[in-house]
From TrEMBL:
Protein name: Uridine phosphorylase
Catalytic activity line of the entry: 2'-deoxyuridine + phosphate = 2-deoxy-alpha-D-ribose 1-phosphate + uracil; uridine + phosphate = alpha-D-ribose 1-phosphate + uracil
Gene expressing this chain: UPP2
Cysteine pairs bridged by disulfides in the record: 95-102
Keyword Transport: no
PANTHER family: URIDINE PHOSPHORYLASE, URIDINE PHOSPHORYLASE 2
Family classification: Belongs to the PNP/UDP phosphorylase family.
Biological classification of the source: Eukaryota, Metazoa, Chordata, Craniata, Vertebrata
Function: Catalyzes the reversible phosphorylytic cleavage of uridine to uracil and ribose-1-phosphate which can then be utilized as carbon and energy sources or in the rescue of pyrimidine bases for nucleotide synthesis. Shows broad substrate specificity and can also accept deoxyuridine and other analogous compounds.
Binding site for phosphate: 100, 144-147
CDD domains, sorted: UP_hUPP-like
Amino acid sequence: MASILPASNKSMTSDRNTYVGKRFVHVKNPYLDSMDEDILYHLDLGTKTHNLPAMFGDVKFVCVGGSPNRMKAFALFMRKELGLEESGEHIKDICAGTDRYCMYKIGPVLSISHGMGIPSISIMLHELIKLLHHAQCCDITIIRIGTSGGIGITPGSVVITDTAVDSFFKPRFEQVILDNIVTRSTELDKELAEELFNCSKGIPNFPTLIGHTMCTYDFYEGQGRLDGALCSFSREKKVDYLKRAYKAGVRNIEMESTVFAAMCRLCGLKAAVVCVTLLDRLECDQINLPHDVLVDYQQRPQLLISNFIKRRLGLHDQTS
Ligand SMILES: O=P(O)(O)O[C@H]1O[C@H](CO)[C@@H](O)[C@H]1O
Ligand SMILES: O=c1cc[nH]c(=O)[nH]1
């Protein structure tokens, strides 16, 4: 295992991801250390072309979300909230050399887009985790801020995921490796989820709950929608499925949480998933919110995470 954990820090506490002293990022690939150069192709970064420790060594919070525009908006918001607008801190896309993903750094906060679905976020996470490893980052908290479909809860509610589950309501992510299926756990950091929930209590009119999040491979048939180009099941079957999901503890559905939870867990990253719900899937399938309401809802996870980061940095009362 190619870990940058110094020998002196190797005595473990009861928390499997926490070492006495600093918590480093683990990459679990014996080949990486012997590589002369590591090109992070989809991020347009590399170990020979960029001084990754100088560029990213102070990162403590990594926020990821599907849409490039949303992650740029989050970066601009964090710049304001951290009081860095006046300091000449520019917002520039670090991955401008590629249009696969975008990345912005604002002080200790990294904001990155991951596109839609498991394959897209998985590629980004492989390269991001190696980036954090090469940059010798420690004590990282990583949070996915996204949108989702709710089940049995009011649209606009924010769901903090305790466990990501698959389409069978199981807390697992099945990765096909060569011609094997490797099953990985999708548990998220419970303490971090509680900390975020407590943080949400300080925001007025901010409906928030902790629950399971179901991650699917598709937005339409995979989420039981009746409005895709293909649909081979009845309305009754759809409602029955979603009600069974609700009974199993699922409160929202999106498309990245299982692989995100599994990869972060394996690499020693404290991770959370915070998604706003855009609709109640027991009521409808189409997202028909007025634009201003959609914008307001999408900002909710950003507001919560900004408050959380400011609290962690001891800045909570200093900005809006
Ligand atoms: O809000 P984001 O991060 O884009 O995520 C959700 O939105 C997309 C579907 O519209 C999926 O990627 C789903 O996970
Ligand atoms: O219903 C929804 C809404 C947003 N994202 C999803 O994956 N599903």
